[in-house]
Structure formats: structure tokens, C-alpha cells
Amino acid sequence: MKLFYTGPVVNTEMLVVMLEKHGIAATQEFVDPVPPDDGDLNRLAKVLVPEPDYPRAHQLFYTEREDEL
């Protein structure tokens, strides 16, 4: 698995769902796993994607889209 994004849980949860809708099996894990999951949506988490899917995920979410101009 390769690190794709790090940010607040509120963003990582949505990103995982969006990646899964494109057929990419992403996972999420907390940056600091020690504190219990208290529902804090600002807690930092990482999104990981399989290495072979990384270029496609990057293209989907980071490449500028010319059709949006």
C-alpha cells in the first residue's frame, strides 16, 4: 500500500468512499493510533491505496481537469 493522502478524518472518509466508487480499494488508518476513536472529525488519518492503483488515483484527484475551465 502507498500513502495517498493525510488529513482530517472528515476528508479521509469521503476520499476512501470516492476511491472505492472508482474501483480502488483504499484504506484509512489514524496517524496516531493510541487515542481512542472519540468521533473527532479533525483527527489526522492517512489514506492508503494499492501501489498499482496509485497512478490512477492520483490522476483522478490531483490532475487538473481541462473540462472544468
What does this structure look like?
The protein is of the alpha+beta class and 69 residues long. The chain has helices spanning 9-21, 54-62; strands at 2-8, 27-30, 44-49. The longest helix has 13 residues, at 9-21. The N and C termini lie far apart (33 Å). 13% of the residues are buried.
Question: Could you give a short description of this structure?
Answer:
The chain has 69 residues and is of the alpha+beta class.
The chain-level mean pLDDT equals 89
Order of helices and strands: EHEEH
Counted beta strands: 3
Order of strands in the sheet with most strands: 1-3-2
Q: Estimate the strand proportion.
A: 15-25%
The share of residues in helices is 25-40%
Report the principal-axis shape: elongated
Number of separate helices: 2
Q: Rg from C-alpha positions?
A: 13 Å
C-alpha end-to-end distance = 33 Å
Structural class: alpha+beta
- Flag low-confidence runs: none
**For the report, how would you describe the main beta sheet?**
3 strands, antiparallel
What attributes characterize this protein structure?
alpha+beta; three-stranded antiparallel sheet; 25% strand; 69 residues
Could you give the topology of this structure?
Blueprint: E1 2-8, H1 9-21, E2 27-30, E3 44-49, H2 54-62
Antiparallel strand pairs: 1-3, 2-3
